[in-house]
Amino acid sequence: MTHLWFFGAVLAAAAAFALLEIQIEGGEGGWASNLPTWRIENRWTKLFFSGRPLTGYHLWVHAWVLVMAHLPFALGFAPPSLRGEARILAFLVFFWIAEDFLWFVINPAFGLRRFTRDHIWWHAPTWWWIAPRDYWVFAPVGAALYWYGTQ
Predict the structure, then answer these.
(1) Which long-range contacts (CB under 8 A, 24 or more apart) does 68-73 make?
(2) Under a CB-based contact definition with an 8 Å cutoff, are residues 103 and 26 in contact?
(3) For residue 79, how far is the Cα from the chain centroid?
(4) Whole-model pTM over 0.90
């Protein structure tokens, strides 16, 4: 039952955030392309963001989600521990994969039919088979973190 709660919470949070991000970015504004935010693009950002620039929007969104995910520790609901941190990091990894996918599925400008390399310029350079490389690379990382965190 614990696994069901964990992954249900991942999906619920990811869906809510995807809906918010669709409102912020709009239909065709993937990777903050239409937002008035700063962008840094160099070899480091290309390495860490799969060829995409670091934007002010993404930096602060990721920071906010990271802080919110650690609230159980900060509020005293759970004592800080390595296994607890592993569960939080697993949550974050699965959250970002699910949120990114749901952004396309829920977004009226995309939908599941347009979830292809040809329609998603910011994932196109790193597309593997039916999904972006990041999904394939980070899903096992999330699984390993979750496994360690639940031992």
Answers:
(1) 69/95
(2) no
(3) 25
(4) yes
